[in-house]
């Protein structure tokens, strides 16, 4: 990573013409330094980022189009265009597109840590990646996915 140079990244382009397919979502990196990494994301209906934690990064979203549902530290919240969503380091959060419409947003994290490398590792894993592989790759890049919530389970006492 290099020092940031004064410039404009055009609206329909990313750095070095990079566009990642991250589990069915399109991420286009806009800026990268050791202190901050930003990307434009397009999330089709029904896509999501399961609850996870960035132990060493603060994450932000500025919502451009659409309606997000969030789980932020166990609380259900909604974000709409013009909202700035703040996801502090160490706090579990999940991001869901339940709107039936495509969502567009600008994400950024500070510091960058290993997130840029994680996106390269997850790029094009396919339409149905192995969840255990995604979790392992993410953990190796300092993003920790939480286990799925337990459903109500019948007692196992044999009665």
User: pLDDT below 50 for ≥5 consecutive residues: which ranges?
Assistant: none
List SSEs in N-to-C order: EEEEEEEEEEHHE
Instruction: Give me the side-by-side strand order of the main sheet.
Output: 1-2-3-10-5-8
Profile the largest sheet.
6 strands, antiparallel
Helix/strand-derived category reads: mainly beta
Supply the number of structural domains: 1
Proportion of residues in β-strands:
35-45%
Which CATH architecture would you pick? Sandwich
Q: What overall form do the CA principal axes indicate?
A: globular
The CATH topology is given as: Jelly Rolls
Task: Find the CATH superfamily.
Answer: Jelly Rolls
- Counted beta strands: 11
Distance between the termini: 61 Å
Describe what you observe in this structure:
There is one protein chain. The protein is mainly β and 159 residues long. The chain has a single domain, classed as Jelly Rolls. The protein is built from two helices and eleven strands. The protein has a six-stranded antiparallel beta sheet with strand order 1-2-3-10-5-8, with helices on one face. A hairpin with a 2-residue loop joins strand 1 (20-22) and strand 2. The termini are far apart. 18% of the residues are buried. The model has no long low-confidence stretch (mean pLDDT 90).
């Amino acid at each position: 990573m290099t020092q940031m140079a004064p410039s404009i990244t055009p609206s329909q382009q990313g750095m070095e013409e990079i566009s990642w397919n991250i589990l069915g979502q399109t991420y286009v990196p806009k800026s990268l330094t050791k202190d901050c990494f930003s990307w434009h994301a397009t999330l089709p209906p029904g896509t999501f980022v399961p609850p996870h934690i960035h132990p060493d990064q603060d994450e932000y979203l500025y919502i451009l189009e659409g309606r997000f549902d969030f789980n932020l530290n166990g609380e259900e919240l909604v974000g709409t265009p013009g909202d700035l969503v703040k996801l502090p380091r160490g706090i579990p959060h999940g991001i869901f597109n339940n709107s039936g419409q495509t969502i567009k947003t600008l994400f950024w994290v500070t510091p960058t840590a290993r997130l840029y490398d994680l996106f390269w590792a997850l790029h094009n894993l396919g339409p149905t990646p192995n969840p255990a592989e995604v979790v392992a790759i993410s953990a190796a890049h300092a993003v920790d996915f939480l286990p799925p919530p337990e459903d109500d389970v019948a007692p196992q006492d044999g009665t």
